[in-house]
Amino acid sequence: MNPSKSLKLHVLILLVVGLAVTATAPPVGAQPAESSDVRPGAVKLNGSDSFELHVQGADLRGVLQMLSTQGRRNIVATKEVTGTVTADLYGVTFEEAMDAVMRSSGYVYQAKGNFIYVYTPDQLQEALLAERKIEVRVFKLHYLTAVDAEALVTPALSDDGTVALSPESETGIEASDTDAGGNNLAGGDIIIVRDYEENVKRVAEIIERLDVRPEQVLIEATILRATLTEDNDLGIDFNALAGVDFETFTSTTTALTDLNPATGTNVAGIAPAAGFQTDVASTVPDGGLTIGVLTNSVAFFVRALESVTDTTILANPKLLVLNKQRAEVMIGSRDGYLTTTVTETVATQTVEFLETGTRLLVRPYVGKNGYVRMEIHPEDSSGSVALVGATALPSETTTETTSNVMVRDGHTIVIAGLFRESTTNGRSQVPILGNIPYLGTVFRSTSDNTAREEVIILVTPHIISHDLDEAVSEQLKDDVERFRIGQRKGMQWWDRCRLAQTHMRWAKEELEDGDRGKALWNVDMALSMNPRMEEAIRLKERLTEKAYWSDESRISSIKYVIQKMVMQELGLPFERIVPPVKPRDPKKVQPVVREALGIGDLYEDPIPEPSRRSSLEMMVDAEEIAAAAEDAKAPAAKERLEPVE
Question: CA–CA separation, 603 vs 271, rounded Å?
């Protein structure tokens, strides 16, 4: 080929290539066109939902396009989503692939309906905030207080959330003659929460879990105090009097109780010439055994006493209290005494009280697995106020303890105990003579004292199971009623109340037998002895089908002023609803009056009807009985007539 022609051909080719490059180059300042330099096969779908992804520095938007195509999902990315991706993934789901690609590139996505939106983190936050809705919800609390609920739900609220509370209820039950509560909220505590929907829903879940019925604990404390006191006393009085013959004394001689020679003529009116006496037996208390020996002018008196005192005090207070609440029970007495406070200008007297008896203070904390922790203070005391001159001084003997213990439900534990023993040996004697072996017994007396004291305090908690324990409590209430009835039956039979009860019992028995006449007579007898017996009044009304006030005149219209006003508004006579015109059966009162006055139906068991059988029915029954008797006799007679083979 001609060299000149070859050179012209190369120049033409270069011009064509240059023009092509110039035509495809972007203008200055323009955004580069999105490239989809993802090689074919970089994203593969294996099976129904298993992907493989192999890219090296691939354009992010191209990878998202391949995932959309292979996974048949609608993926939309904002214009700010750009970058490259390098990843090798095997056997992943579509969601796992999206998570891996988004995390590696620093973007996030949100699935909404049939679309998947890819955002920058700031864009997603703005989108979520724009979609959130504010909700206001009212929560009525049953067991939690509004203050406690606010503290518990506040961590679940956003910075934009707010909580409004109902006023706090007053606590305590102090007596007052001026404060009756005013216009305080009488309903339960309420909180109003305003926040985003998801936060309000979270608050509702928290309140549902925490606003539950608190547990109750029945606490029983037993205080046992036993005291044993034993005293042994022995003494011998020796008397020797000159000029006096003790054998002349008779059983009525008062001198036998006083042989003191210093009293002169006390010894049967005879003054002794000389005397010798020991008086050690006088320390022995009165009682016991006294043995005397009289011979000529010498007398021996031996006095011995043994006394034993065994005292047992048992206190058993019980108290029902809510979990974590303080409770106190006190059964005893309050003895008042005056105290005087003196200042430079005035003296002020105040009345103080000495409280004695059985007392229990407790605060339980219900724990896990049926354990109960308790702050507890049981106490049993006795005391009095005595006058010392013009001053009243209180004195008290008490057994008490304060403890913080943990006990399992229904189990008993000893929380305090004491054993104390005191032994005293006393001896009174004539100096020197009382120390002589054997013979010294005549010149001395002994007094031995032993005191033992035992104190045990036990406590038993029981977590209340409402259904079961309410049934037991109902049984105990019935037992109290049985005790009351039993106490009444122990009274004399002629007591008016006892006779009234007896006639009421007979009236019920007569009703069961169908004799209304005798039943009414017994009811009248019961009312004659106890005119205010409501049960007898109601039974008489049912027997006579007349109101109890039907024969009485109206005493006052002031008592029925409200009923009178209502009847006037209805345009009806006032007397229709006031005794003695008022009917006993509410159904006989006009419906409009019943509605206005709130008169409800009267529900009563029907009175047993007497059995009234006609004479014909009784004759038929008699004939049937006679026929049955004849049928029973026939086989026996036939057997007697048949011969024996």
Answer: 97
User: Rounded to whole angstroms, how far apart are CA atoms 506 and 434?
Assistant: 81
Whether the Cβ atoms of residue 279 and residue 301 lie closer than 8 Å to each other: no
Helix (H) or strand (E) holding 362, with range, is strand 347-366
Q: Are 572 and 593 in contact (CB under 8 A)?
A: yes
* Rounded-to-integer distance, Cα 401 and Cα 224, Å: 13
Longest C-alpha distance within the chain, in Å?
195
Phi-psi region at 216: left, alpha or beta (left = phi > 0; alpha = psi -120 to 50) = beta
91: left (phi over 0), alpha (psi -120 to 50) or beta: left
How far apart, in whole angstroms, are the C-alpha atoms of residue 220 and residue 319? Answer: 7
DSSP conformation letters of 572-598: --GGGGSTTTS-SSGGGS-HHHHHHHT
Cα separation of 296 and 254, whole Å?
Answer: 17
Tens digits of per-residue pLDDT, 526-583?
A: 999 888 888 899 888 888 888 887 777 766 667 788 888 888 888 888 777 888 778 8
What are the beta bridge partners of residue 365?
373
Angle (nearest 5°) at CA 493 between 487 and 494: 125
Cα–Cα distance measured from residue 637 to residue 143, given in angstroms and rounded to the nearest whole number: 85
The answer to whether 366 touches 323, Cβ cutoff 8 Å, is: yes
- Compute the distance between CA of residue 430 and CA of residue 432 in angstroms, rounded to an integer: 6
Q: Give the pLDDT of residue 136.
A: 94
Q: Phi and psi at residue 357, in whole multiples of 5°? A: 140, -150
SS3 for 59? Answer: strand
SS3 assignment, position 150: helix
Q: Whole-angstrom Cα distance, residue 454 to residue 399?
A: 11
Q: How confident is the model at residue 243 (pLDDT cuts 50, 70, 90)?
A: low
Contact assessment for residue 297 and residue 245, using Cβ atoms and an 8 Å cutoff:
yes
Give the whole-angstrom CA distance, residue 211 versus residue 189: 11
- What is the DSSP-derived secondary structure letter of residue 601? -
DSSP-assigned beta bridge partners for residue 416: 457
The DSSP H or E segment spanning 96 is: helix 94-105
Q: What is the DSSP string of 237-264?
A: EEEEEET--GGG--TT-GGGG---GGGS
pTM summary value: 0.59
Distances (CA, A) of 333 to 225, 248, 370, 385: 19, 59, 36, 12
Residue with tokens 């005595």: 386
Residue 145 CB: number of other CB atoms within 10 A?
Answer: 16
The string of pLDDT tens digits covering residues 68-118 is 888 888 998 888 888 888 888 888 888 888 888 888 888 989 888 889 999
182 φ, ψ (degrees, to nearest 5): 60, -135
Token digits for 41?
A: 């096969």
